[in-house]
Structures are given as C-alpha cells and as structure tokens.
Amino acid sequence: MLESYFEFLDSGEIRIKGTRIGLETVLRDYLQGASPEEIVLRYPTLSLEQVHAAILYYLRNREKVEQYMQDCWRQGEEAWQEQQSAPSEFVRSLRQRLEMYRQRQREQKTALTSVTIR
To answer: Is 80 exceeded by the pLDDT of residue 117?
Structure first.
C-alpha cells in the first residue's frame, strides 16, 4: 500500500516514514525539475524508493496533494509574517548586531575610499 511510505501526523503534516522530511519538500524539488536521484543526493536519509513513492503518491492524488502543498506554503508564510511582526528578543538582538556590523563595514569602506583618493 502506497500510504505505508508516509506518516500522516495529527497536525496535518505528511512526512516520509522514518524521516523528518515532509512530502512537500520532496515534491517541491521534483516540481522544480529535480530528478529522483538528485533528490536523494539532497536528502541522504531518503531512499530512491521513498522518493519514487512520494512522486507516485502525488501523481495518484494530485488535487489533494496540491491543496496540501498550498496549505503548507500558506502556513509557512503566515508563520514568517508573524515572526516578522513580533520577533523574539533573540531575533531583535541578532538584527541589532547585524545592523551594527553593516554600519562598521560602511564606515570602513568610506574610510578606505577617502584614503585611496588622496
């Protein structure tokens, strides 16, 4: 049975059985033109058989799986938007350090440019 290759989680996620890799991950790569062999190289915990099972599951359940993939994308986008609008203290700290680093880089570049021009 084809479904035996997958874990259907209570959260609605579909993962390749025995891995943490979601069906949507394999199919995204496949639909972007990656061959099953390339996908196995990208995700070494997957077997070629599992990748072929994911593709076959998609082909047999195209409408249902496309809806699932759209839902995954939407949820990811919503989570990203939420994180952007209310970042954690850690993320705010990282952003502040990154901005300080960029400012130092700009200052160094300006200082270098003025030295070379003289």
So the answer is: no
